[in-house]
């Protein structure tokens, strides 16, 4: 997709849901929010539209039609078209859970801003910038390679078997990624970055099987793409 921007923008939950509703969306899969799709009154809807206009998020055409300005048109198009969502959480993060929606090469990330009540942070990057950002933000502490650089099938990992976004149950886990099917809300695959003492590993889970990879940049990029079938 053209016009991908690597910047963060802030919207109230009311503004976010009003845009989604205007695009014809009737349900939302992602982080738990306090607002609902329906705006309570016409007066409140007008106030929300005025706020969106003041923030330069929406504009009006010559025929008085409302439209989304760049880059919000791209970001909300991705939210509307995405069929899968990656949920991520890291041990050291200030935010709780981040939802990543991916269409073609565009990744739109949404999370609740911890310092501002009922406020969402939304950003859009291309796939390469996204994987680089995850490294820079501490999701993957790079390990020093030992003799073995190949993936291994791991039969029993009792401490990681039930590790999830909702159940961050291991002190050794640095980050968790889960691929969710938005229509069913079911987890399809997950990727866990785990500190094992002398080095860190990436554990890729699919169809009941864990594979273990050394935590290096090329492996994280490969596994993130495998997570979303790219």
In a few lines, what is going on in this structure?
With 230 residues, the chain is of the alpha+beta class. The chain has five helices and twelve strands. The two termini are 15 Å apart.
Mean pLDDT: 83
Overall SS class:
alpha+beta
The oligomerization state is single chain
Described by the principal axes of the CA atoms, the overall outline is elongated
Tell how many strands the DSSP assignment holds.
Answer: 12
The percent range for strand residues is: 25-35%
Structural write-up:
With 230 residues, this protein is α+β, with helices and mostly antiparallel strands. Helix content is 23%, strand content 32%. The protein has five helices and twelve strands. The chain has helices spanning 13-22, 42-54, 72-81, 127-136, 217-227, and strands spanning 8-12, 58-60, 66-68, 84-90, 98-103, 106-112, 119-126, 152-154, 173-181, 186-195, 200-206, 209-214. The strands form two sheets. The chain has a ten-stranded antiparallel beta sheet, sandwiched between helices. Strand 9 (173-181) and strand 10 (186-195) form a beta hairpin. The longest helix has 13 residues, at 42-54. It is elongated and about 60 Å long. The mean pLDDT is 83.
Would you spell out the secondary-structure blueprint of this structure?
Blueprint (H helix, E strand, L loop, with lengths): L7 E5 H10 L19 H13 L3 E3 L5 E3 L3 H10 L2 E7 L7 E6 L2 E7 L6 E8 H10 L15 E3 L18 E9 L4 E10 L4 E7 L2 E6 L2 H11 L3
Antiparallel strand pairs: 1-7, 2-3, 4-5, 4-9, 5-6, 6-7, 8-12, 9-10, 10-11, 11-12
């Amino acid at each position: 997709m053209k016009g991908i921007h690597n910047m963060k923008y802030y919207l109230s939950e009311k503004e976010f849901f009003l845009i989604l509703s205007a695009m014809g969306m009737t349900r939302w899969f992602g982080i738990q929010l306090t607002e609902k799709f329906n705006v309570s009154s016409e007066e409140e809807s007008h106030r929300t539209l005025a706020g969106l206009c003041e923030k330069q998020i929406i504009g009006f055409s010559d025929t008085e039609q409302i439209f989304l300005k760049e880059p919000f048109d791209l970001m909300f198009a991705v939210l509307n078209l995405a069929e899968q969502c990656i949920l991520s959480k890291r041990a050291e993060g200030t935010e709780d859970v981040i939802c990543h929606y991916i269409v073609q090469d565009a990744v739109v990330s949404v999370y609740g801003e911890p310092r501002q009540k009922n406020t969402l942070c939304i950003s859009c990057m291309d796939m390469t910038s996204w994987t680089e950002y995850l490294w820079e933000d501490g999701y993957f502490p790079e390990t020093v390679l030992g003799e073995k650089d190949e993936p291994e099938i791991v039969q029993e990992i009792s401490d990681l078997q039930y590790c999830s976004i909702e159940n961050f149950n291991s002190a050794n886990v640095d980050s968790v990624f889960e691929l969710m099917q938005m229509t069913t809300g079911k987890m399809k695959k997950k990727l866990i970055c785990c500190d094992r003492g002398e080095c860190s590993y990436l554990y890729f889970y699919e169809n009941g099987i864990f594979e273990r990879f050394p935590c290096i940049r090329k492996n994280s990029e490969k596994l993130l793409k495998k997570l979303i079938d790219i």
